[in-house]
């Protein structure tokens, strides 16, 4: 039996670089950073006082009332807003979606840490205590709340799953959604990633792990600098990117516009360390080669690679080594960029927004830049073409995006130009 093909028919995003697909893409395309000083809380006790915050989010613009969002954690507000955009973009109405074999599959790493932090604050407050905990603390803090609320809001009674594989969550969610559609379990899947982990507790936790970029509180837009000699950690960010994935014939039958096709997916584990990647990149390379095999493609069929590119020494060197294993000599010809240089690290949503940028790169025949790449770390092994500081025009028929997470989780998705 011929394998069912999966296409993208809708997209939506909430991010530090914009709260629509066009706004976010234009920011990244033009090298505009979304990193700034933290405003969600007073960061004065922290060494790191910068992050990539979502600003000026208007949920009511998408028909989502403030009354409804008051009962949601921040990461859920993001997912529901991005889902509303994607559904509208796809041409579906709520009633039409309910008639389809529709599922929801989201990636999320940390979940409602804002609700958890607030709960602990009340618990430790002598004037409050256990009886003053907000009643919805439990449903707000659990990571499945975003997917559940999307299902509830749209009345979708198909499967509603949450996948947590650290920083690979968004990529793995899209890959698993693709496999589920291929299997025939559903025809339409609302899929992507969401995260809202900018709290004092979260930043402090990453700070003591020595994972965050330091020394840039007065120049936050220069903090995320993948593959640069002066990089010293990632920048924590937040947001959501959601796709409408659809079986090809189902999409064609309703006359849907098709952005691109999801061609392949691969997943692996380093089986090495809870936070550090394999230095030689061999574990992550398995995910890329598996994605290529799943797509029936050769390394030279890929023109653009959106890097995980976190701006940490361990990731950037290991990922470069991985590219040389997975793509061989073609790695030297690849257009590569890390859009985390503009967006910061959206953790469980990172792979989803980076997949969205791959779709736009194909659509616009344009490779977005890696900004702040002023002194490339060639001596450290980062010696490929990372598109420093200025984007370039290029014919892109297929793009790959990999996400490499704590716990050794690796995921890679391949997106290609749609051809009937």
Could you say what the CATH architecture of the largest domain is?
Answer: 3-Layer(aba) Sandwich
- Secondary-structure element pattern, one letter each: EHEEHHHEHHHEHEHEHEHEHEHHEEEE
Query: How are the strands of the largest sheet arranged?
Result: 5-4-6-7-1-8-14-13-9-10
Q: Provide the CATH topology of the largest domain.
A: Peroxisomal Thiolase, Chain A, domain 1
CATH class value of the largest domain: Alpha Beta
Question: What would you call the shape?
Answer: globular
Span of the ends, CA to CA: 18 Å
Strand content: 15-25%
Helix content: 25-40%
Work out the count of structural domains: 2
Catalytic activity: (9Z)-hexadecenoyl-[ACP] + malonyl-[ACP] + H(+) = 3-oxo-(11Z)-octadecenoyl-[ACP] + holo-[ACP] + CO2; a fatty acyl-[ACP] + malonyl-[ACP] + H(+) = a 3-oxoacyl-[ACP] + holo-[ACP] + CO2
Domain Ketosynthase family 3 (KS3): 3-417
Pfam family, one: ketoacyl-synt
Family: Belongs to the thiolase-like superfamily. Beta-ketoacyl-ACP synthases family.
């Amino acid at each position: 039996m011929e394998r069912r093909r999966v296409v993208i028919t809708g997209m939506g995003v909430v991010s530090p670089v914009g709260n629509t697909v066009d706004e976010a893409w234009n920011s990244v395309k033009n090298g505009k950073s979304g990193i700034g000083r933290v405003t969600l809380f007073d960061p004065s006790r922290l060494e790191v006082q910068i992050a990539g915050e979502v600003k000026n989010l208007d949920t009511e613009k998408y028909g989502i009332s403030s009354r409804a969002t008051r009962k949601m954690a921040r990461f859920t507000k993001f997912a529901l807003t991005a889902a509303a955009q994607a559904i509208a973009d796809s041409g579906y109405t709520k009633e039409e979606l309910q008639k389809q074999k529709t599922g929801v599959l989201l990636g999320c790493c940390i979940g409602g840490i804002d609700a958890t932090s607030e709960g602990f604050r009340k618990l430790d407050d002598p004037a409050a205590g256990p009886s003053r905990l907000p009643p919805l603390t439990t449903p707000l803090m659990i990571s499945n709340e975003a997917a559940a609320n999307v299902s509830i809001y749209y009345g979708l009674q198909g499967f509603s799953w949450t996948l947590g594989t650290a920083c690979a969550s968004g990529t793995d969610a899209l890959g698993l959604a693709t496999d589920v559609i291929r299997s025939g379990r559903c025809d339409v899947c609302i899929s992507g990633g969401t995260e809202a982990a900018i709290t004092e507790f979260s930043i402090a936790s990453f700070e003591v792990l020595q994972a965050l970029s330091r020394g840039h509180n007065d120049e936050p837009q220069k903090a995320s600098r993948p593959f640069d000699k002066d990089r010293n950690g990632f920048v924590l960010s937040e947001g959501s990117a959601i796709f409408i994935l659809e079986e090809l014939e189902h999409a064609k039958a309703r006359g849907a516009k098709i952005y691109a096709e999801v061609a392949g997916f691969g997943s692996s584990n380093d089986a090495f360390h809870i936070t550090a990647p394999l230095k030689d990149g061999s574990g992550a390379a398995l995910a890329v080669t598996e994605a290529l095999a799943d797509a029936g493609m050769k390394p030279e069929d890929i023109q653009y690679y959106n890097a995980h590119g976190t701006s940490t020494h361990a990731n950037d060197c290991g990922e470069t080594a991985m590219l040389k294993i997975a793509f061989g000599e073609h790695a030297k010809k690849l257009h590569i960029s890390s859009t985390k240089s503009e967006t910061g690290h959206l953790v469980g949503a990172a792979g989803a927004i980076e997949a969205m940028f791959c779709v736009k790169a194909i659509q616009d025949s344009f490779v977005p830049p890696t900004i702040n790449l002023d002194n490339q770390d060639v001596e450290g092994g980062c010696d490929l073409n990372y598109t420093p500081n200025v984007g370039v025009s290029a014919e892109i028929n297929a793009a790959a995006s990999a996400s490499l997470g704590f716990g050794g989780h690796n995921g890679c998705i391949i997106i290609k130009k749609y051809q009937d």
